[in-house]
Amino acid sequence: MNKPGVILVTDGDSMAKKAVEAAAANIGGRCISASAGNPTGLTGAEIVERILQAPYDPVVIMVDDRGEKGAGSGEKALAHIARSDKVDLLGVVAVSSNGKDCRGIDVSCSVTSDGDIIESSVDKSGTELSSNSICGDTLSVLRGMKSMTIVGMGDPGKMDFKDDAEKGAPVTTKALEEIVKRSKGKHQV
């Protein structure tokens, strides 16, 4: 049996939820809307069970810590899903925060608020930064995990209305598309 392909998005507020739902539909994926929340309300095990019930993939999941220090509910859910042998984690859309004291995590690439794919990171507004690291409170759990595609982006559904769900969430869509593109050959989507 093939494992379902999963894309994690590290944001889950109401604007992000609308953008992720639109973007998942744009790529022919399935969004588990119940995974949204600020913070995430479902456990990792509950999310995996919902992923396994999805009729097709890629399945897009939202995880959010609401800025909680340490390992919050979003990070715990992300860690559980990433380590699950029941799913194939295709990649993570790493949403930037404007945290000042952040060790950051290296990205494979980022999508700017204008929809450009760049090799460095972006800030919360989707503006290119000189660093390859992105800061986000739900990201530190990724350190030390198997290598995976990490696509950075600004705030889903926002970025001065450039990613508005009413416009089809073009930036979030581009981030999901990039993960699918980079997972070709590893997973049949």
Characterise the protein shown here.
- With 189 residues, this protein is an alpha/beta fold.
- The chain has one domain (5-183): Rossmann fold, CATH 3.40.50.
- It is built from 4 helices and 9 strands, in the order E-H-E-H-E-H-E-E-E-E-E-E-H.
- The strands form 2 sheets. It has a 7-stranded mixed beta sheet, with helices on both faces. Strands 5-8 form a two-stranded antiparallel sheet.
- Helix 1 packs across helix 4 and helix 2 crosses helix 3.
- The longest helix is centred in the C-terminal third of the chain and has 14 residues, at 170-183.
- The chain is globular and about 40 Å long.
Quaternary status of these chains? single chain
How many structural domains? 1
Number of helices: 4
Q: How do the helices and strands follow one another from N- to C-terminus?
A: EHEHEHEEEEEEH
> Any idea of the CATH class?
Alpha Beta
The CATH architecture would be 3-Layer(aba) Sandwich
How many distinct beta strands? 9
Poorly predicted runs are none
Q: In percent terms, what proportion of residues is strand?
A: 15-25%
Query: Sheet bearing the most strands, described?
Result: 7 strands, mixed
Shape: globular
Please identify the structural class as seen in this structure. alpha/beta
Strand order of the largest sheet: 2-3-1-4-9-6-7
CATH topology: Rossmann fold
Distance between the first and last residues' Cα: 14 Å
| Rg calc | 14 Å
Whole-number mean pLDDT? 91
Proportion in helices = 25-40%
